Amino acid sequence: MRTWFLVIAVLCAGPAWSQTQPPPEPARDDAASRFDRMSEQEKAQLRERLRQFKALPPDEQARIQANVARFRALPPEEKARVRQNLEAFRQLSPGERQRLLNQWHEFQKLPPDQRKELQQQFRAYLDANPDRRQQMMENLREWRNMTREQREQMRERLRELRERRGR
Predict the structure, then answer these.
(1) Residue 74 — φ and ψ, nearest 5°?
(2) What's residue 167's pLDDT?
(3) Is residue 8 pLDDT above 70, yes or no?
(4) Could you give phi then psi for residue 34, rounded to 5 degrees?
(5) What is each CA distance from 106 to 29, 93, 100, 101, in whole angstroms?
(6) Are 6 and 53 in contact (CB under 8 A)?
(7) How many Cβ atoms sit within 10 Å of the Cβ of residue 69?
């Protein structure tokens, strides 16, 4: 959770970021003017975020910096979508946020090929028409209600179907 908070803090901390990695002159002027307009409380919070960032291991700092650079390179509509998702995340209850973070960590532990497969399945879900999405959600509910043995039987049937189609 701390890492997630720090990522969010760094993304929202334009002036603090400019203090760690000097940007080109015009952006530095913009960051300095934004910093000057902040209240003392906001400045103190920003300094604390910077202190926390500097306390991170170098590899974690590099990862965060790469994420910030990727965010800054996004087109405005993508940035708006990311901000909207972040706001929706912030509005979740602490329990829901923790559950999502746990799921994200589990997803990250998967081998790259499994992650890619899940991403493709999710894209297919998003691209499906509403009736198809509803059917997909019903299938997921049924899957979750199956026992481990039933799931394994279903997997075996699906393997057999794929093999028949491949012939």
Answers:
(1) -70, 150
(2) 61
(3) no
(4) -65, -40
(5) 42, 20, 10, 9
(6) yes
(7) 10
Q: What does the pLDDT average to over 58-86?
A: 93
Q: Give the C-alpha separation, 9 to 52, whole Å.
A: 10
Give me the pLDDT at residue 21, please: 47
- pLDDT interval class at 29 (50, 70, 90): low
**Beta carbons of 54 and 10 less than 8 angstroms apart:** no
Closest listed residue to residue 5, CA positions, set 84, 114, 123, 90: 90
Question: By three-state DSSP, how is residue 103 classified?
Answer: helix
Phi and psi at residue 139, to the nearest 5°: -60, -40
The ranges assigned to domains in the chain are 112-167
Contact 47, 14 (CB under 8 A): no
